[in-house]
Design a protein that fits this description.
Length: about 350
């Protein structure tokens, strides 16, 4: 489509939309007033307003990679007596948000995770290990730095500042052919460290269109009581959404995710047995694309309830291998804001 055509289309959407430009901080009235559901800390609430949320996340990791290329189980088994084959991660996440002032929104998020990993041994045996339990509690604030709105446009910029509290178990064990052993790094639910969660978030609306960009980090402070820390992490992402009606919008998102290697090591894990026990085989970089839908109930007794779903597929990934690759993820969520005025 030529740019002039795009501009014409935008203009016609603007003219046809009943409310040309609403959000900004604190307004939650349009379906795309919130970012795609996989994005956290994208919006603010007005003073005294609460929001409850629930997210369900599923991630499927199937097969190993080394660098950008896939490697077979047999290739991994040439170097290690055991290889991971597949991992599923399921997470339930409950969140609360509160508008302390019109410029400061507080957030708390508590995850509950289930991790399942399938393995094969050089002898041909297969076995599965599982970890289940609460994850690390995340407490954060979003501070409005700047906002502006005109007839057509709104812009908002906010700073995210948070802390991850090590409430999750990082001493998980399970039965394997070698007995009941301590599970390797990716099967531990908690990090065991206090982590800083800085970020910067920009959001905009233009008629029936909206979008945003966010950069967030995870900075591990020190090592946990097992004498290691997970890798520092960073996500840079951008999204765009189109409001189709008062109650539904579609979204597209692209994200670059990178996580570094671990520091230190857990003395109870032998990196020669399985690649997941090697703290230097943990880094990865990934480009994810996501397609999403956001719904909001515009009126009636359930007015304000939001439902959203986003499906994500990596289009590029590079890992310190052998390491399981990420195949797809899905996030579905419910959100409800109330109070304030
Ligand atoms: Cu909220």
């Amino acid at each position: 489509m030529r740019p002039t055509m795009g501009a014409l289309l935008c203009a016609s959407f603007l003219l046809s939309s009943a409310t040309a430009a609403d959000p900004g901080f604190g307004k939650v009235s349009r379906p795309d007033g919130h970012a795609p559901i996989s994005v956290m800390g994208d919006h603010m609430h007005k003073k005294g307003e609460w929001m409850l949320s629930y997210r369900y996340m599923f991630m499927d990791m199937d097969g190993n990679r080394d660098g950008t290329r896939r490697v077979s189980d047999d290739a991994v088994l040439a170097d290690y007596p055991v290889t991971p084959r597949k991992m599923d991660m399921e997470m339930h996440m409950v969140g609360v948000m509160y508008g302390l002032t019109d410029r400061v929104t507080l957030m708390a998020m508590m995850p509950f995770a289930r991790l399942d990993m399938d393995h094969r041994t050089r002898m041909g045996a297969r076995f599965n290990t599982r970890s289940i339990g609460i994850g690390d509690l995340k407490l954060s604030a979003m501070v409005g730095l700047f906002k502006s709105s005109s007839e057509r446009w709104t812009h908002a910029l906010g700073a995210n500042a948070g802390i991850s509290v090590p409430t999750g178990n990082f001493h998980n064990r399970d039965d394997t052919p070698a007995g009941n052993v301590r599970l390797p790094y990716p099967m531990q639910i908690g990090s065991g460290t206090v982590d800083l969660l800085p970020g910067l978030t920009y959001t905009t609306t233009y008629g029936d269109w909206s979008g945003g960009g966010q950069i967030t980090g995870v900075i591990r402070l020190g090592r946990n009581s097992r004498d290691y820390r997970r890798g520092h992490a960073m996500t840079i992402q951008g999204w765009g959404a189109r409001r189709l009606s008062r109650w539904v919008s579609t979204s597209f998102r692209a994200a670059f995710v990178r996580e570094g290697n671990y520091g230190g090591s857990d003395g109870a894990l032998n990196p020669n047995v399985v690649p997941t026990a090697d703290p230097s085989l943990r880094w990865f970089r990934r480009v994810d694309l996501g397609l999403g839908l956001n719904f909001i109930v515009p009126k009636g007794p359930l007015a304000g309830h939001r439902l959203a779903v986003e499906a994500v597929r990596p289009v590029w990934q590079k890992v310190a291998g052998p390491q399981l690759e990420t195949d797809w993820m899905i996030t579905a969520g419910w959100q409800l804001a109330f109070g304030g005025h």
